[in-house]
């Protein structure tokens, strides 16, 4: 279908002196003429300001460590290097309305407790002493573990290890909360919670497709299971690889789930772990919704909106809404794993989910020769890079 | 609150010759006077015809084995000794509208495939060669494994072991289906299905609180996970016991769940596994809904409607609707486990769920001296045995 | 598909002296051999004990009036002539697990208040003074109005008119409640409720596809709207007839709905009003679930399981589960209306809904010459009358 | 609870030369230090950029009429004067992420058909000839009627009246769709739809709390009822006023509802009509979520974030998220009605709904003497105007 702003059905009014004067009259009344902005605010397809970006862990890590010495945890609130999309500096987003950052905590450190409307999730990069207390439940998390801090829960973190700092990645929906004018923040009246005695209590309670006594009374909109350790997750993916072909676009992929509902872990953000078989190259697709990926294991390449991004363990990269993307495990003998989180629950709740497969070249975008670190503007939408998409 | 059929608000019309004649006139028109039956059909509290029964595995087992030689599998359809409540012979129910039986399959035997409106579940008692194919998925199940054959799925079973027969317990909602005039039955047009290559495919796909790609398209009203092996189930209960006090009435109890919804495995029957700590004696409660229990591990005593039932591994017993019941693990050093299935999903869907705690003696029914094998009539309701309940 | 009990896949074990002895051994243990009952309890298709019946209002009315003089309201509880299916006398059902009856209240009479697990609905046949108080809300209902008394609500009724008795039809799920051993009954501690001042409060609050303030907090499993007056119902059907072809099986049909959920009025029973255009003859279909119809307007004929039932205003008839049925408005100039209630919500909740169109003769069953008043046995299933259905 | 950015638990790092250099290093890697923005992006309570604004219909109307002569409908796409919040010019929003505008169509005009990801709604201000065709259904709408054009439906509009132009108000979620990078737009391949023969088909089909045959198959996330005429809406409010006290904050208020689900008309926007009794002054509350109000009948005053806005029929005003607001019908003998639409469905889906009552002065904000036309900055949040709210 033709998509041309000069066609009947689009706004195509040219400026005249009379119209310019008229626009001034409107502006004086806090009004305007729709046709002056219609084509911009009703685009043919999504026009994200976010661009594909890859952040290299080996570049970020020294700067994250540097923060440890430069600011006190108590002064920073949280000592976090946030990753900022060049197109979204105004809202501190890594992509779309999603925020991410790398938080460091030194041995023995503990943050104060707070809660906020924004939901948070964690993915541990390194270090063994990390703990978090969420609504009174103490959780210990290690490398590649995934944990959540749902909307409105009291939380505080720390590192009780002795073998060095912990670095974990935070993911939050702060830009979404702010876009909807819904942000609240509270410092815990006693600055710290009193945790229950059993560590990882919810991990012990939710397992093996069984729901414990009392689950039928759980009525909050998020998962009562607050942490998802790496080992059983990886084992589950290996089992899934035996039993299933997986997704043509993502390989062996599974969503971390709220065991009480089978839904996403939180109402605003979902998270997945995926496994690419040795040498596997998935097909490209695109969808509404933004995704932040973290290479959890192995090394490979992802092609996003026609740009090539090589990643290895620890690297973080983003796929803006409606950008074509595909993944390639470059190792011929080892599998590779990608952790990711997204705003798909929002897309689905609001009826905004849309997806399509890349139609040409057996599902693969033309592979460019060079590696892009970040691109801006129209290229990111995939439209320019993949002209067939809108023809 | 007083419950007396002579009080205002209850039917209390005495027969007279005129009324008797009138009732005859009504009957001739396929009609009747409500007040002649009102107090019976609107009882103060449930009046199940089912009575508490315990079936001893050591008594049943020889007769189940005997069936192996007496009838051919092909002639029997399925070679099953069903357990029949003395009060429900008319509908072949073990309790309420639930059917159960012990099915035996000799080494090398295979049944033909069929499907029906009734839903089925299996709990394996003994033997290692049991398999079932459900809608094309081959499952291997061993002792204490739980598996389902939902409403409308093609299924066939067999035993490919070499070390003797398999005995598993079937649980079905046949009496419910018939009470609602909703039964259908079909023999598979080719008598056998062609199973997929991967054995236990759904067990591999649903694990660790992750949902695989494609789960969002599952729209059937039952669990896509068709088998729940014993080992992870038991481990989950041990973990739960570390993290939780459990239920005062059931100890450490968890429901086998549909991972896609967090609901019961099927819309008409739910199933639980529970663990009683060494020496644990739970408090009594009663609820609407019927339950069939199987002792999966250990030995103990359950008091049901004031009667004492001693059980050991393999024994099966039932708790009729609204009967008081409590469980006691008699072993002071080992835990005991009870598998059970029920019609609670029906109670909840229809708004019939009701539950109450036994109010006296710290929650324990007066313990009678003798062991009852089966009781009939009013005693089963708990009303006679526990007069305070209705006073 | 062949349906023959001698085929492989069905039970076909002949009695032998050894088996007879074996069955005796089983019975002594409260057990039995499944294959002796399997074909009966797992039929090829539903085998309801209910038969199609039509109850003529002109025959029942004099007997209903007679009750007014013969028993006091206070002694009867409720003065009701119940309609009893010849195949379901054991459970006082009119069809399936549904109860219905005609209740009469003389001028100035008032019943005492009670509540029960069973849900009730009312359809007014005649008289203008009927009132009911449901959980404190006073409702006035007139001819052809539909009202509900959901599961667990306190209720009491009366007639404050001066122009004679009121006769309304009760519909309840008493047999269902009893089949599930879930019945409870309570007399109001003060025998009467204190109603709020506004009559028909919920009728005033739920109208025009608007939900009033507070509706978002309604969490009960039934409609907060308790009465559905005839006039707007009939107008809605006339509007629907302008805009829609309606159902091929039911003409212009609409379900009374819970405005807060769009679902059925109660979790165990639904109700419809349908309009047949002048001369309209619908096609036949059959479905699981039982239906009780009341001719609300006009006259016609329904063919049920091959039997012809002529009805006029006030008559009541039933369609058992899985019986073929079709309706014919015999008036060439006036529309006809049928009120009906059913157990479809149960069928849907439990996954038992199944439906099929009559495949032959343009969708019409062979029309027999004579009118049946009641039929028994196999004929009612439609199988014998319509042999093509099961071939 | 104290809310002070210098307290422990907030970011309070002062700039130093070392830190400034560090921030530069971070920026070079598309990164930043969270503590430099944390207090801004995690505010104590919502900080909308939107301010309360009232747009006077008598001021806008001449300019809307002027557009009729200045631009051709075919060139404008739609001839709309949009209302732009001074704080949201960047996204063309009237408040929050909601867009609104006044559209004019001359006699005989018809627009071309298109569809988009954004959802739309209409509220008619004046003129009798307005029609719209939504997914093939032709609707005629008159003054004060409410209609919807859900997400993804083909639609086109026109005016077939002879008595002058039509002016209606559009409400869309365009800014929300863009914030989530989810916008799509298509021109109808034939420029016009072929409407069905029955006008207002869905209005005829959904009435009187009845659901027509086929409704059970409706699976789209929006209402099948596409127009809500004024007369039955007003009558419903009058009935509601008889039966209910209504809301302390909104008087007699009801939500236009999807009859199939009882939910909001669309997944991203809800709409209400409310009636203020003669002289009624409601109490103040505040909530997350933005609201656009249109005075549908009568005249009054609303106090929003401490500013007084006087309105009369046709005027439009907005309440930003978390701003205190209350309404006052200034007429002592006539009721007043406010139409409004909002993003509450988004707030609820995402778990962002929060509400609180104004705690002081019997629920009334201090009434300022002067009328504000528009205010900017902190005043709009209500925090400055109502210091007790955050103390």
TrEMBL record, chains A, B, C, D:
SUPFAM superfamilies: RmlC-like cupins. It comes from the Bacteria. Residues 357-391 are annotated as: Disordered. The keyword Cell division does not apply. It holds the Pfam family Cupin_2. GO terms for molecular function: oxidoreductase activity, acting on single donors with incorporation of molecular oxygen, incorporation of two atoms of oxygen. Residues 102-168, 274-336 form the Cupin type-2 domain. Residues 369-391 have a biased composition (Low complexity). Keywords: Dioxygenase, Oxidoreductase. InterPro entries: Cupin_2, GDO-like, RmlC-like_jellyroll, RmlC_Cupin_sf. This is Cupin domain-containing protein. It comes from Streptomyces vinaceus. The lineage of its organism: Bacteria, Bacillati, Actinomycetota, Actinomycetes, Kitasatosporales.
């Amino acid at each position: 279908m033709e998509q041309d702003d000069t066609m009947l059905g689009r706004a195509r009014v040219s400026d005249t002196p009379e119209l310019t004067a008229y626009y001034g009259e409107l502006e004086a009344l806090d009004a305007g003429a729709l046709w002056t902005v219609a084509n911009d605010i009703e685009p043919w397809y999504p026009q994200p300001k976010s661009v594909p970006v890859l952040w290299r862990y080996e570049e970020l890590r020294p700067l994250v460590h540097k923060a440890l010495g430069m600011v006190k945890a108590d002064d920073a609130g949280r000592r976090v290097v946030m990753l900022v999309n060049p197109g979204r500096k105004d809202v501190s987003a890594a992509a779309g309305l999603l925020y991410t950052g790398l938080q460091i905590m030194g041995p023995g450190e503990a943050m104060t407790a707070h809660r906020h409307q924004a939901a948070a999730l964690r993915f541990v990069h390194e270090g063994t002493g990390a703990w978090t207390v969420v609504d009174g439940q103490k959780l210990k998390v290690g490398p590649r573990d995934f944990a959540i801090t749902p909307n409105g829960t009291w939380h505080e973190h720390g590192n009780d290890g002795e073998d060095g700092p912990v670095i974990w990645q935070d993911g939050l929906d702060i830009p979404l909360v702010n876009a909807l004018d819904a942000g609240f923040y509270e410092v815990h009246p006693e600055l710290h919670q009193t945790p229950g005695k059993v560590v990882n209590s919810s991990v012990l309670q939710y397992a093996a497709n069984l729901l414990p006594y009392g689950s039928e009374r759980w009525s909050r909109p998020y998962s009562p299971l607050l942490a998802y350790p790496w080992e059983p997750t990886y084992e589950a993916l290996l089992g899934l690889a035996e039993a299933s072909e997986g997704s043509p676009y993502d390989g062996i992929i599974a969503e971390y789930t709220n065991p009480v509902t089978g839904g996403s872990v939180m109402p605003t953000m979902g998270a997945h772990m995926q496994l690419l078989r040795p040498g596997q190259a998935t097909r490209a697709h695109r969808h509404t919704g933004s995704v932040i990926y973290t290479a959890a294991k192995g090394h490979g390449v992802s092609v996003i909106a026609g740009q090539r991004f090589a990643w290895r363990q620890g690297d973080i990269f983003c796929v803006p809404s409606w950008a074509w993307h595909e993944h390639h495990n470059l190792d011929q003998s080892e599998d590779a794993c990608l952790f990711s989180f997204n705003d798909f629950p929002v897309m689905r709740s609001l009826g905004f989910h849309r997806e399509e497969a890349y139609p040409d070249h057996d599902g693969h975008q033309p592979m460019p020769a060079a590696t892009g670190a970040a691109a801006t503007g129209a290229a990111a939408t995939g439209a320019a890079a993949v002209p067939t998409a809108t023809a």
